[in-house]
Amino acid sequence: MGWIIAIVAVVVLVLIYFSMYNGLVKYRNWVDEAWAQIDVQLKRRYDLIPNLVETVKGYAKHEQETLAKVVELRNQLGEKSNRQDQMAVNDQLSGALKNLFALREAYPDLKANENFKMLQEELTQTENKVAYSRQLYNNTVMKYNTKIESVPTNIIASVHHFEKRDMLEARAEERENVRVSF
Questions:
Q1: Where is the signal peptide (predicted)?
Q2: Cα–Cα distances in Å, from 134 out to 7, 36, 53, 102, 172?
């Protein structure tokens, strides 16, 4: 009778171990999937930028520096291999796109151009989706990291080399107070 209890206890422990391991795998995959969602939105933005640049070129011929910066940053995206470098370039690209949209005030005809309006709306929606995807990624990473650091899954995580993931952070200039002047 004692050996039956021992076998049942071992089976229960093995099932608990498998359950915790599978939970870690699930969270790790959720982190990867959340990153893939960011990547999808960044690819969408990447594809929209040439159309926007071509539309603006016709109106803002002497604003080549702004256009060149947007194109340069877009091209750098393909060169970056790790997530942190990709997000750093994408943050710079967001700033360059804001400058590009600021041009519409200087060019009333551009402001009225249907292609420009449509592309601006598409990019605005994409930027919102990128922001949401970043938020989802950080939330998923937080849950995954918590699982890795919590007892008893931290033991299984260290045995199977589950590693913490870094959250995406706002750049220093995005943390500064917004200055409003009239």
A1: none
A2: 46, 11, 25, 25, 17
Q: What is the pTM of this model?
A: 0.70
Q: Is the pLDDT of residue 149 over 60?
A: yes
Q: Which domains does the chain have, with CATH numbers?
A: 32-170 (1.20.1440.20)
- For the chain, the straight-line distance linking the first and the last C-alpha, in angstroms and rounded, comes to 85
- Say how far apart CA 136 and CA 100 lie, in whole Å: 28
Cα 34 from Cα 166, distance rounded (Å) = 13
Q: Enumerate residues 6+ apart whose C-beta is below 8 A from 67.
A: 53, 56, 57, 60, 100
Each residue's pLDDT tens digit, 88-113: 888 788 777 777 777 666 666 665 56
DSSP assignment letter at 60: -
CA-to-CA distance for 79 and 85, rounded, in angstroms?
9
